[in-house]
From TrEMBL:
The keyword Repeat applies. It comes from Rotaria magnacalcarata. InterPro entries: Actinin_actin-bd_CS, CH_dom, CH_dom_sf, Spectrin/alpha-actinin, Spectrin_repeat. Keywords: Actin-binding, Coiled coil, Repeat. It comes from the Eukaryota. Residues 635-665 form a coiled coil. The lineage of its organism: Eukaryota, Metazoa, Spiralia, Gnathifera, Rotifera. Residues 79-183, 198-304 form the Calponin-homology (CH) domain. This is Calponin-homology (CH) domain-containing protein. CDD domains: CH_SPTB-like_rpt1, SPEC. One of its GO terms (molecular function) is actin binding.
Amino acid sequence: MVDTASYHQQQAYLDMSSATANGIHHTQINGHTSQQDQIPFNIDQLAADFDLAGQDECNSSARMFERTRIQVLADERGYVQKKTFTKWVNSHLTRVGCRINDLYTDLGDGRNLIRLLEILSGERLPKATRGKMRIHCLENVDKAIMFLQEQHVHLENIGAHDIVDGNSSLILGLIWTIILRFQIQDITIEECVSTETKSAKDALLLWCQMKTADYSSVNVRNFTTSWKDGLAFCALIHKHRPDLIPQFKTLTKENANHNLQLAFDLCEKRLGISKLLDPEDVNVDYVDEKSIITYIVTLYHYFSKMKNDSVQGRRLAKVIGSALDSEKMANDYERLVSDLLAWIEQTIVTLSDRQFPNSLPRVHEKLVDFNRYRVMDKPARFAEKGNLEVLLFTLQSKERANQQIPFQPREGKMISDVNRAWENLERAEHDRELALREEIIRQERLEQLATKFNRKAGLREKWLTDSEKLVASDQFGTDLASVEAAFKKQEAIQTDIAAFEERLQNIMAIANELQTEDYHDYATIEARKKNVEMHWEYLISLVTKRRQCLELAYNLQRVFQEMQYIFEWISDLKWRLKSDDIEKYILSADDLLQRHSLIEADIYVIDERLKRAITDADEYLNPDVNIDGYRPATSEEIEMRSHNLQKAYEELIELSRKRRDLLEQAKVVSKFYSDVGDAEFWIDEKQQTMTSPDMGHDVNTTDSLVAKHKLIENDMSA
């Protein structure tokens, strides 16, 4: 219950004395009575009490001064309150585009009062009556008073006519009552130590003390003197908005007007709080408590609203954050699913690739990459897959908890789709491993074949090189035996080559298999294969050439052998023809002639063979008779051999002729000697007969002897 009749007297009393109160003033709001201020009922009673108490001690001049002083303080306080309350009312009316200039007169029509209460309460009051007559004004003010009564605000001694008539004390009391009801009443702060609930004023004071507790230069004990230096105002601002007064520590108590001006200007310009007070209203000896409370309440509501806005903002942010989190989780799910499915699809494409590198080390690198994928890439993606399931479950659970429709992934982005894709990945992975193993086995076999080829090719190249050196020589010897030995050696080489050809075909087959299997280093294999083939062909050409040379040399040596045989034959015949047995065996000249005829027959044969031999030898004198420039003998040697043989033959002919002549002569001599011998034998025989003494012993014998004698005579005549 508010007693507004003695409003100024109460304010003067509060500032004048700290003595014990003579009466208790209560404000009843919402059915609760709280002790607000200790105030006297009226200024006249107060003066009378002082007169009675000190009439023996104070003279009349003192009492007059005291009463004058109280009246002056009340007038000053009323002025400050009027200015403060006017600004406070305007700070709310500006919301609806209204404003008052004089608190005492501009509320008289009730319209602004109704608007003020609608703004403060947030409720709709009965529509103000139009018209400017007193009756209209009284009706509008009554509507405002009735609304306050409905809000359990008991206004004692205030009627509509007091407001219409501009009763300053009651108007100030009414505004203060409205401030108490709509600005201060709901301020309650529980102390940290006890559960005692403070009154609105004490709660406001405690709030100020709590907010300024960290500031050593500020000590808030009341709503009067504690605010004179302006530091308390600056501390409240700095506590909630330190950015507005970054240099708070530089503020001093001695510069009160600056501090107050700074605080009020910041509140007005930066916080949008109406400038209810001026520095000269606060930096005075007797500070008006209600003006200070009104301003501080405005600060309290602003900062509380800022805090509530922050709390509501946090709550809204929490709701929005939850929705955003859900949306983010859904987006994350979609993104992660898309990323995972894209990775699975790309990985399946990669794993399905069978175009392996064409070398064992690089295939092993592929196997290492595959194992790295299984050890590093796949587990991470498998964890992502599990996280996706957890994320989806968390998202759906969260939305169910928030009574929202659970998120359902789109077709193709469901967990089942991921599981199917993962199964496909597992199959592709298994097939990839098998393919890699098979390729490694194939590459290892190719490497083994290549190694085998290189080893065998090395052996074949060495054999071919040695064989080339062996058959490259065209020095077959200077006689038929050497050439025949070389010929036999050639036959052996050709036999080895024929046997070697099969082994050569084996490595050719290996090379062809490496080519068919697309061996990575087939270029080297092919180069070596061609090298072996080149050596083989070269060897074959050498062998062929050598055989031809051997045949040429062999044929020539056969000719030389024939010529040598003929030469030796001629030499033998010459030796026989040179024998001196003609004289020794002159009596056997006929035998010698017969033998000589045999020799001449041999000479005839020699002549035929000689001609053939020389003709055959002369063929080798032809420049065209050579094999790649190879000639089995020089022309000089052939010509010399032919010449020597021809010369020997001619000597043989000469010797044969001479010997025949000698033999003919010997034959004549031999016949002579034979005839002489026969004559001598006949003579001796006939002489013996003629000298025989036997003349016959009878006629027959004598006739016989005569007949023999006649025969002898005939023989002698012959």
